[in-house]
Write a structure and sequence with these properties.
Blueprint (H helix, E strand, L loop, with lengths): L29 E7 L3 E2 L2 E2 L5 E3 L2 H8 L18 E6 L9 E3 L2 E7 L7 H10 L5 E8 L21 H9 L9 E3 L8 H18 L3 E4 L13 H9 L9 E5 L2 E3 L21 H4 L7 H9 L7 H11 L1 H14 L1 E2 L2 H14 L14 E4 L5 H8 L9 E6 L3 E5 L14 H18 L9 H21 L7 H4 E5 L7 H6 L4 E5 L20
Parallel strand pairs: 1-8, 1-9, 9-10, 10-11, 11-15
Antiparallel strand pairs: 2-3, 4-8, 5-7, 6-7, 12-13, 12-14, 15-16, 17-18
Helix pairs in contact: 2-10, 3-4, 7-8, 8-9
């Protein structure tokens, strides 16, 4: 109301008829923390600086090797090294292959294995839109030797201190809603445990994001003892803030790495002559392949041209390249799941469980789990830590077949869509209520706040996030003296608002009852 009028006349006083509105916050903004090919743009370093991207083109601008100006060709952004090693007998653990009657193992140099680049590609392939990248370093030197067949990959270039520092940079980026660290499984078991507990602790501090975890051992699980990896994971995630964590198992076999990205530079340290016993053994020489290999060092042809010639000349070499390509395409599921979350959020809503969805670019799994085996993953009576299975179904392919948080025994926070829906409502309301931080703590303000939140929650209910045949059954907003506040609260400057929500839960177990009855006529 206009006051202190001293001059006669007509004055207009416009009064707002409607309260401020609550704008729903973004729900699918992951932050990928890890190692990149490089981390500079226009002469500025972007190490330990969260960078917002919306496409792989944005990623490449900041973090990819630049295109060679003379050839206009970009180098391979990720080029791990694998060693084809002849064995006297089949190893007790791990995979082995037979070439020309001889047993070989094909295992990686652990210090050349990184997951972030291809995880970001899979994120965008699966519906991802906006993401943050926190580069904590660039690729380090290799060891020059493979891992022991069947052992876990531990990359000594991947440092817990780097990943922890990258995680802490997100304390100043509250819009991030998911933490994804694909290279966490390249740490030792103890360091991986420390990182996961730190992520959950920061989730609880920020109250804006959840962490998507991968499980060590999922790359090459033992067909019998794979449950040991699950138990190790449960033993090493702690017992605090589990409602903010979610995990998926096993690793995925993808198509993210094309055949053009694999060649002899990915084998045995890049020396093609070491492949001669495979492509041209003394028992069955292949002179054409041998000639190509011996001429590579002085050849004017490109690596791609020489590689294609070898593939045509030698079936053994083509088979070898195919094996390495499959190994490079074996990926932890966290990047894919961040894309799936984004896709489900944008098409159906954050309140819909991100499950029963076919991930794009995934052809198979490192382990096919059946219904009986999933029982102990989905429900664990001892720790209560649920692990979501990704399964293969005949005729349907690969499906995400779980939607639980690590707090699997909690009636409140068992489901990931419930956790993320409540986070969305909390953060949306929090941002809207900032407008009333210094408003008078009176009935007028209380009525405005209640009206604003009622309108917001009514819209959320109409979209299906809250259950109830009418709005009054789905939620209630309480604010006022005698209901949420005492006189002392008002004197102390507290305006307390209580929201009661009936969040929709997924129908995880559908029971169909069939009973026979006698004919009525």
């Amino acid at each position: 109301m206009i006051t202190n009028l001293k001059t006669p006349g007509v004055y207009i006083d416009e009064v707002n008829a409607f309260p401020n509105s609550v704008v729903q916050v973004e729900t699918a903004v992951p932050a990928f923390i890890g190692y990149t090919p490089q981390a500079s743009y226009e002469g500025h370093s972007y190490l330990f600086k969260p960078v917002q991207i919306t496409s792989m083109a944005d990623f490449n601008a900041y973090f990819a090797y630049p295109t060679d100006p003379s050839t206009n060709v970009a180098p391979k952004q990720y080029s791990p090294v694998y060693y084809a090693t002849q064995q006297k007998k089949k190893p007790e653990a791990g995979k082995s292959y037979v070439f020309n009657g001889e047993i070989y193992t094909i295992e990686p140099d652990p210090n050349t294995i990184y997951y972030l680049y291809n995880s970001v590609k899979l994120f965008f392939q699966n519906g991802g839109s906006t993401a943050y990248i926190v580069s904590v370093g660039t690729y380090g030197p290799g060891t020059g030797k493979p891992i022991t067949p069947g052992s876990q990959i531990v990359n000594s270039n991947v440092q817990l201190a780097d990943l922890t520092q990258g995680l802490q940079t997100l304390l100043k980026v509250p819009e991030v809603t998911m933490y994804v660290v694909p290279e966490a499984t390249l740490l030792s078991t103890a360091e991986n445990s420390t990182l996961m507990e730190s992520m959950l602790m920061q989730n609880n501090t920020m109250q804006t994001a959840v962490s998507i975890f991968d499980i060590k051992g999922g790359r090459e699980p033992d067909p019998i003892q794979w449950t040991d990896d699950i138990q190790t994971f449960r033993d090493n995630t702690g017992n605090n803030f589990l409602k903010y964590g979610v995990s998926y198992y096993p690793y995925l076999i993808t198509t993210v790495v094309s055949s053009q990205e694999v060649d002899y530079t990915n084998l045995n340290g890049g020396d093609p002559t070491t492949l001669l016993p495979i492509v041209s053994p003394s028992s069955s020489p292949n002179t054409q392949a041998e000639t190509i290999i011996n001429s590579i060092s002085g050849s004017t042809l490109t690596v791609e041209q020489n590689n294609q010639a070898l593939i045509v000349a030698s079936k053994s070499y083509s088979h070898l390249i195919g094996i390495v390509q499959k190994e490079m395409n074996t990926m932890p599921p966290s990047g894919v799941m961040a894309g799936v979350y984004t896709l489900v959020d944008s098409t159906r809503g954050v309140w819909v469980a991100p499950a029963n969805v076919t991930p794009i670019g995934v052809t198979d799994l490192t382990l096919r789990i059946d219904s009986q085996e999933q029982e102990n993953l989905n429900v664990d009576a001892v720790s209560g830590k649920s692990v979501n299975a990704i399964r293969y179904f005949n005729g349907q392919g690969v499906l995400v077949w779980g939607a639980r948080t690590l707090d699997g025994n909690s009636q409140d926070w068992r489901y990931i869509n419930v956790r993320r829906t409540v986070t969305m409502i909390e953060q949306s309301a929090k941002l809207a209520l900032r407008a009333y931080v210094f408003a008078p703590n009176t009935a007028s303000t209380w009525a405005t706040v209640k009206s604003m939140l009622d309108n917001f929650l009514t819209n959320v209910w109409k979209e299906g996030a809250l259950q109830g045949s009418k709005a009054a059954d789905a939620f209630s907003v309480q604010v006022g003296l005698g209901s949420t506040m005492t006189a002392q609260d008002i004197l102390d400057g507290y305006l307390r608002v209580t929201m009661l929500l009936a969040v929709s839960h997924p129908a995880e177990f559908i029971v169909l009852t069939v009973e026979q009855q006698l004919a009525k006529s």
